[in-house]
Amino acid sequence: MIKKGTLDISWLGGLIPYRSIPVLVYHHVTETEREDIRAFSISPGRFLSQMRYLKKKGYASISLDELANIEMGGESGAGPGPKIKSPKTKNLFAISFDDGYLDNYTNAFPVLKLFGFKATVFLATGFVGKKTQPIGSCAPSAHMDWPQAKEMQRHGMSFQSHTCTHPDMTKIGVEQINRELNESRKEIEDHLGAPVRHFAYPYGRFNERVMERVKEAGYAWSYAAGASERSSFARERFDVDTEDPPVLFRFMASGYGSWVRTVRNGFLRKRF
Ligand SMILES: [Zn+2]
């Protein structure tokens, strides 16, 4: 038996390759020179070529409900939810958009329709139909309105919660957390008439306290911005950035991106 603290080789188990369904996350889909949103933007041309690649390779898009059904029932993992299961089916992926920018409707939606892909938009309901100017940015960004969301919904897009006011959930009190979770869901359900069961953390920031509240509020699943511990209450997603080389996108789509990220993190943390 290995004495704790002398040699921990438990991370070696993580070397066994596993596949997971990639959940891609985009923000703006627009051509921009703006420094403040460049890191969160992808050009429409790049988006089109990514979707064309997925279609050509026979990938099928799934909704987050379908994702949850496939992954439900895994063994217990970190956080309040079950640990996610590896999929049996190859070449599935999910697309998500955070914040509900107008360019998702004008630039991404036509491409999604063209290839018959479904996607999920995480709305901050206080931004719908408005222009917002995030702290540190130099110009406001427009958001889609409810009729545009409704039109996207008719073509297979789903709308889920990203709070009302887009706060850092780890920095607000429990009452506001509950308000952000409950009121945003009610507003989306009232406008679009479909159940809201998924939640994405603003800025990808969460902790145990926030995760518990999300679960108690009745959400089935919630999403981080990057890596997570394979928990359904901080489901991993892959940020797709303008600067990424196409080979990185192909790799993320392959389903092995999560495994490599886990190995790399485990290796860096535990090697020395
Ligand atoms: Zn956001």
Features:
alpha/beta, TIM Barrel, two-stranded parallel sheet, 9 helices, 12 strands, globular, binds zinc ion
What does this protein look like?
With 272 residues, this protein is α/β, with parallel strands linked by helices. The chain has a single domain (10-264), classed as Alpha-Beta Barrel (TIM Barrel), CATH 3.20.20.370. Helix content is 36%, strand content 14%. The protein is built from nine helices and twelve strands. It has helices spanning 35-38, 44-56, 64-71, 102-115, 146-154, 174-192, 208-216, 246-253, 257-270; strands spanning 23-26, 28-29, 41-42, 60-61, 92-99, 120-123, 131-132, 141-142, 158-161, 198-200, 221-223, 238-239. Strands 1, 4, 5, 6, 9 and 12 form a six-stranded parallel β-sheet that branches. Helix 1 (35-38) links the parallel strand 2 (28-29) and strand 3 (41-42). Helix 2 (44-56) runs parallel beside helix 4. The longest helix is centred in the C-terminal third of the chain and has 19 residues, at 174-192. The structure holds zinc ion (ZN). The site of zinc ion has 5 residues, from strand 5.
Q: What is the beta-strand fraction?
A: 5-15%
Euclidean distance between termini CA atoms:
21 Å
Number of domains: 1
Oligomer: single chain
Count of discrete alpha- or pi-helical segments spanning 4 or more residues: 9
CATH-wise, what's the superfamily?
Glycoside hydrolase/deacetylase
CATH topology (level 3) name: TIM Barrel
Provide the succession of SSEs.
EEHEHEHEHEEEHEHEHEEHH
